[in-house]
């Protein structure tokens, strides 16, 4: 079995949620040290890892980034962690590439930094790595993601995946409890929450913008069936292909929620649970990735750049460190039935292609 598959099978069996990747991070750090890389653990007091290969020769500082966390699911009523976004594959690819690059002496100038980042799904891991100084000396950073079957098949790759901005808003809606036989004495938080959902659904931004908003969680329970509930919680998922419209969308959603529940005598407190910025991708970094894909897969394996309504906290790196050139690519894996699906699966043979593309990227910048 190849190294990348060995790493994958181990990591796949120990899924851990964001900032809880204790076993995952320990395994990756141990493997990096055994391969001979210099490793710094617990970046910013988290499970984050930075490894390094220093050529000893002046040159640029290139970083490769992989995320480590799994997703939380409720399956047959039982909460669990499961790798349904492919982060175990990402870590396996970057770990294998790093060890091979050191063994082959591929870093001939400058330095290569390897970032293993926690908590991508929480939208907080990249920020923690930035605040921990992981990017302070980095000039270019490259990341990637496994792509669904409908976007990209095995033997293909996309040099630039343009992710959308994402904000998750939660409204806590307060009413007034009452007996269900005397509803006029209370304010029904459930009614108010339904009104808020409908109000948000009537919003209209410019048709020229690429955006969406939808309710994704609705929690309301008075504990009994003959009482008017006095509290409800609703979560909305907001998407925008660009960063600027997201601010307008958040303002309008918040206003619609607060005003619509106020019409019924309820109140709403709206807070942001998590945010991820839209993609900011550098042309030079993309050119490096594009050339590497062609080297590994040929011209026929290179697909056009594409946009996606998905989000990625990777883009906090160029947003928080504007001087860093960021590139983010997509690997064809025949992934079905979709990312974040409890039964997500993909062709494991594609991981070796990911290793080769990352190695080609490094050789082009530091070779």
TrEMBL record:
Any GO BP annotation: folic acid catabolic process
UniProt KW keywords: Hydrolase, Manganese, Metal-binding
Name of the protein in its database record: Peptidase M20
Positions of transmembrane segments: none
Note describing how the cofactor binds: The Mn(2+) ion enhances activity.
GO molecular function, one term: para-aminobenzoyl-glutamate hydrolase activity
GO annotations of cellular component type: cytoplasm
Domain Peptidase M20 dimerisation as annotated: residue spans: 169-257
Pfam families (alphabetical): M20_dimer, Peptidase_M20
Binding site for Mn(2+): 85, 87, 121, 145, 340
Entry cofactors: Mn(2+)
């Amino acid at each position: 079995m190849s190294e990348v598959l060995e790493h994958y099978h181990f990591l796949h069996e120990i899924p851990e949620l964001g900032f809880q990747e204790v076993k995952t991070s320990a395994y990756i750090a141990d493997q990096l040290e055994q391969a001979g890389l210099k490793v710094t653990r617990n970046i910013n007091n988290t499970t984050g890892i930075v490894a390094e290969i220093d050529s000893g020769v002046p040159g640029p500082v290139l970083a490769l980034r992989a995320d480590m966390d799994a997703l939380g699911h409720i399956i047959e009523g039982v909460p669990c962690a499961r790798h349904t976004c492919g982060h175990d594959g990402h870590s396996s690819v970057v770990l294998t590439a790093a060890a091979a690059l050191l063994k082959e002496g591929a870093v001939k100038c400058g330095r290569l930094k390897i970032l293993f980042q926690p908590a991508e799904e929480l939208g907080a891991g990249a920020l923690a790595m930035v605040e921990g100084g992981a990017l302070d000396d980095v000039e270019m950073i490259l990341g990637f993601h496994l792509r669904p079957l409908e976007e990209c098949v095995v033997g293909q790759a996309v040099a630039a995946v343009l992710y959308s901005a994402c904000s998750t808003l939660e409204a806590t809606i307060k009413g007034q409890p009452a007996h269900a036989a005397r509803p006029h004495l209370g304010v029904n938080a459930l009614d108010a929450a339904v009104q808020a959902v409908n109000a948000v659904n009537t919003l209209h931004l410019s048709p020229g913008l690429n955006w969406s908003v939808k309710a994704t969680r609705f929690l309301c329970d008075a504990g009994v069936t003959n009482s008017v509930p006095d509290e409800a919680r609703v979560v909305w998922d907001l998407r925008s292909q660009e960063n600027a419209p997201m601010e307008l969308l958040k303002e309008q959603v918040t206003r619609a929620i607060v005003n619509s529940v106020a019409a019924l005598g309820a109140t709403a407190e709206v807070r942001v649970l998590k945010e991820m910025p839209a993609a900011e991708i550098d042309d030079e970094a993309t050119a490096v990735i594009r050339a590497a894909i062609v080297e590994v897969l040929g011209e026929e394996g290179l697909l056009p750049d594409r946009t996606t309504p998905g989000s990625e906290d990777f883009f906090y790196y160029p947003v928080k460190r504007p001087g860093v050139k960021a590139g983010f690519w997509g690997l064809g894996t025949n992934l079905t039935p979709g990312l974040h699906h409890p039964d997500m699966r993909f062709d494991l043979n594609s991981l070796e292609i990911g290793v080769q593309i990352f190695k080609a990227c490094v050789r082009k910048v530091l070779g």
